[in-house]
Amino acid sequence: MAISSSKKPHGTPPPDPMPARVDPCIAMLVDKPPKGPEWAFEVKWDGYRLALHIEPDRIRIITRGGYDWTHRFPSITAETRQLRLKTAILDGEAVVLDEQGRSDFGMLQRALGRRPSAHEPGEIILFAFDLLYLNGRDLRRLPQRERRRMLEPLVAGHEGAIRLSEEVQADGDEFLRVVCELGLEGIIAKHREGPYRSGRNDAWRKITCTRRDSFVIIGFEPSTVTDAIGRLLLAARRGGELVYVGGCGTGWTREESVKLRELLGEIETDSPAVNLKRKGAVFTEPFLVAEIAYRAWTEDGKLRHPSFKGIRERADDLTIYELK
Questions:
Q1: Taking a C-beta distance cutoff of 8 angstroms, is the pair 54, 87 a contact?
Q2: What is the pLDDT of residues 72-126, one digit of tens each?
Q3: How far is CA 66 from CA 20, 51, 121, in A?
């Protein structure tokens, strides 16, 4: 008599269902790079976070917020077909590079804009840095080092619209120093043993480059809700003249903002130090200097992510930022 067995024959496990969308892993902002061999480092790209979904019958490009922007990235979509992958989800950042190879968010926005621009959608590059799903297997529970090992042969060596975000074997402090000297956004540190977790967590850490310089205060925009400063208007020097470089609206307490408005109110003028027209702005004599921390310069010569650090009198023009 035959004896039945409840054991199933050995074979290929059933495929993992492919997620329709994966909320991205978000790096936590920290002041210093972590130490130790368990950390891997990459350049922090300044662009749009995207998930590239590859299926047998379609390609989808999903934004961090869950929007389908496939139609806005035709060059990435076209190159995806050359990867010859059956099913996959790649995590990466879409950027436009300047002449020095640095990602520039302003250039990316213009390339995606509806208005005519010097930058075209074909200039947009996806730097892939993680692999979440491949050929029927959900990889998110694997450690970062293993996902990275599987990603590299898929995109390494590509120099078109999809490229590998290189992993750097280096001391974090030294890598950050070099990246900042090159004018890049910063670095990302990833724990090699960490699985892929959606949302913000410290298995991924970002360390940004900041600059700090002195700029002349040429006016301010009043706060719309309190008797305080809403935004400082700032200028740098070019030759013997002052040039407007944008505004700063963060970095002070409410009490500091009120005192700052009182101080600037004593040097108001009807003759702006620069040729600038802004509705509601109050212009001041260029007697005071603000210490400003910021990340970079925009393509049109304005401060990016400025933050107020302090104020002093314009005693020494040599300390004022000089535009090239």
A1: yes
A2: 999 999 999 989 899 999 999 999 998 889 998 888 888 887 544 555 777 999 9
A3: 10, 9, 20
Q: Which residues are catalytic?
A: 44
pLDDT tier, 140 (very low <50, low <70, confident <90, very high otherwise): very high
Query: Among the three residues 187, 208, 229, which one is the final residue of a domain in this structure?
Result: 208
Residue 265 and residue 116 share a domain: no
Average pLDDT over residues 234-242: 93
By three-state DSSP, how is residue 97 classified? strand
pLDDT for 316 equals: 59
Within this chain, do residues 216 and 194 fall inside the same structural domain, yes or no? no
Question: Checking phi first, is residue 173 left (phi over 0); if not, alpha (psi -120 to 50) or beta?
Answer: alpha
**Amino acid identity, position 130:** D
CB-based contacts of 81: which residues, under 8 Å, 6+ apart?
59
Number of domains the chain contains: 2
Do 228 and 159 lie in a common domain?
A: no
> Could you give the count of Cα atoms lying within 13 Å of 2 in the half-sphere of its Cβ?
2
Structure tokens at 41: 């480092």
| Residue 76 vs residues 82, 83, 113: alpha-carbon distances, Å | 10, 11, 17
> In CATH, what number is assigned to the domain containing residue 107?
3.30.470.30
Examine residue 73 and state whether it is found in any structural domain, yes or no.
yes
**Measured between alpha carbons, how far is 266 from 143 in angstroms, rounded to an integer?**
60
Rounded Cα gap, residues 296 and 276, in angstroms: 22
Q: Domain range spanning residue 75?
A: 25-208
